[in-house]
Amino acid sequence: MLVCAGEPIRAEDVDPIAEALRPLGPKFTQPHLRRLALTNICLPLAAGRAQGGSERRDQAKREALEALRAQGEGANDELGVLTEGTQGVLGVPLWVLIQDLQQGAWTGPRELPGQFVLVKLLARDGNARPQDEEFSVRVLPFPYVDDPPSLTGEALNASLELVDEAWETLIPGFWRHQMGKTGASSD
């Protein structure tokens, strides 16, 4: 439905993330949830994939798999970065990723913008309000871009091409404006 810096974003990539975000706003409409999924996860993922390239991305994934195999041989609970907090502290991409995790085991490689990660859920407090639930996780990153946190900004500046007009209203105004500028400057 959209191409970001040459990387396709399909509806089937957006919709599961949109559904995972539903607990944050049970009254959010499907278009709003899709917009949140696009801006917070899908566009930064695509920008990272474009920036990192397939070779660096594949290498990061191989390194993550090797680290996971090493974990099976001798678990080290001190690996990775200890991250604690609510969705506001963790960030939307990590928060979505940990929603279905079982406590105490490392995940296989999962992709966040610009990096693969292994994640181990240490604890969650079970707060009834999902945005207030406290998590404690260890995150072992395997970046394939130099600065993964910058990818939201990179996505803002990336070239975007709308493939499915039905999704145009889901693209935030700034990006729609940028797409118009990009089209005008390439003529």
Structural features, described:
- This protein has about 190 residues and is of the alpha+beta class.
- The protein has one domain (about 1-150, about 155-185).
- It has six helices and seven strands, in the order ββααβααβββαβα.
- The chain has a four-stranded antiparallel β-sheet with strand order 3-6-5-4. It has a three-stranded antiparallel β-sheet with strand order 2-1-7.
- The protein is globular.
- The relative contact order is 0.18.
Order of helices and strands: EEHHEHHEEEHEH
Query: Which regions are unreliable across 5 or more consecutive residues at pLDDT < 50?
Result: 181-187
Q: Tell me about the biggest sheet?
A: 4 strands, antiparallel
Ends distance: 23 Å
Please state the oligomeric state of the protein chains shown.
single chain
- Individual helix count: 6
Structural class: alpha+beta
Strand order of the largest sheet: 3-6-5-4
**Global Rg:** 17 Å
The overall pLDDT, averaged over residues, is 86
The percent range for strand residues is: 15-25%
- Helix-residue proportion: 40-55%
